[in-house]
């Protein structure tokens, strides 16, 4: 039998209405709950079953200038190689007890590679993407396919693909990594395998094999049957994203429909084999606000992370507001009302865990003032 001192269960007797007055028998009952590893619902109900989500995660903003400076110092002091695998520095949400989680499901990190450096090859069940807010010169090699990384590009590394990165330039490069690491960790579904220590394909093509096969709008290679759970497109290039957003705002100026709200254009990166999200657990979008425009206040089930790609503005999360500028990262917990206001033209990258909740029929959205 487990002794009381070893049990991780710690119960306080609630003094809420309907609870019995303290007595020796009641105290003994509570000690037995603890020692037998039992927790009665009446001590937990408020926490476990709130009227609406009460996430532990907090709204928070990380400054890109500060992240970059710290990443540079890591680049001087900390090598990249086997064991640590990546010089990636994760955002730790202040509500999540110091865990390297931007939100309960999402990992967001700044990764940094010095000139001529390699990050070794590995694969894992966690799904990943890279988003580039500045710089170029690194190729990420996904199952042997070398994918150039440049400002504004979204690069995918779906789960269980071997991948390494190599910096083939004379300048360091930093970028944003997004993964479903916290979700996979919580669910106990993590598998990991090492590949070669050096990236074998050292080619530096402008466009990857997968882009040449897949990245023409609405045109699918007939040789590739069936839907795939992750997008086969390795790189969504900024020139296309930028053109799509500009076109929406031009249509709006002509009085034609297409924008999500006045002065607010948005696109979702999609899997061309399904029309759904790029990764099974991650949604990715780009938003463009005209100077002076604001997004509708919105709250939804599930969490997201935004990165300012260009421009400056303000983000309002619940009853707090932050000024944000290029590169800054914003964690938005579940069900917290969120809106952005553009002080200049403002481009925003967003990723979220929405596919998880949609897949489970647990997604809810509320638009407008809460
Ligand atoms: O680049 O492969 O930020 O495996 C975390 C885990 C990056 C990567 C991260 C990873 C990677
Ligand atoms: Fe990885």
From TrEMBL:
The answer to whether UniProt assigns keyword Protein biosynthesis to this entry is no
Q: What is this protein called?
A: Gentisate 1,2-dioxygenase
Region (Disordered): which ranges?
1-23
* SUPFAM superfamilies documented for this protein: RmlC-like cupins
Q: Which Pfam families match?
A: Cupin_2
Q: Does the keyword Oxidoreductase apply?
A: yes
Keywords carried by this UniProt record: Dioxygenase, Oxidoreductase
Q: Which residues cross the membrane?
A: none
In its UniProt entry, the species of origin is given as Kibdelosporangium persicum
Q: Which PANTHER family match?
A: 1,2-DIOXYGENASE PROTEIN-RELATED (PTHR41517), CUPIN (PTHR41517:SF1)
Say which domain of life the source belongs to: Bacteria
Q: Describe the location of the Cupin type-2 domain by residue ranges.
A: 111-177
